Amino acid sequence: MSAEIILDTNALRLLADDEFIEKIKNECHNLVIPNVRSEIGSHFSNFISLIQRIGTELRGKFILFERADRVPRDIKRDLKNHRADENDVKVTGTAIRRRNKTGRPAIIVTNDSAFHQSHRLRNIIKVVYVDEALDVLDC
Length: 139
Known about the structure:
Layout: E1 4-7, H1 18-26, E2 30-34, H2 37-40, H3 47-58, E3 62-66, H4 73-81, H5 86-102, E4 106-109, H6 113-117, H7 119-122, E5 126-128, H8 133-136
């Protein structure tokens, strides 16, 4: 089963993990980075060179700065009740967009508790911790 893998900014360290990238490449997943540019610079100073390498390695399975769809009001409210910020809502909107666009399941990889505590979100999108990401890719 292939899926759309959406990384929250706290999961961007997986971009430097060769085993993670290899699993994306071999398991036919798409790796999606939401359009949260304002947060990315604080996580990686070498982000540009990293995405160039990954883009070449994944050839067509890497979607950078995908725009977000509108998040349903009930899900947005639930996320905000769990202290989600606007970038978290963008990550959610990106996952919803990819799920709707491809018809495949979307998985948000994050350590942010707002995602994990939002039952409304987890009814439609799978949410996993960064440390669980490699296990989830074993399809």
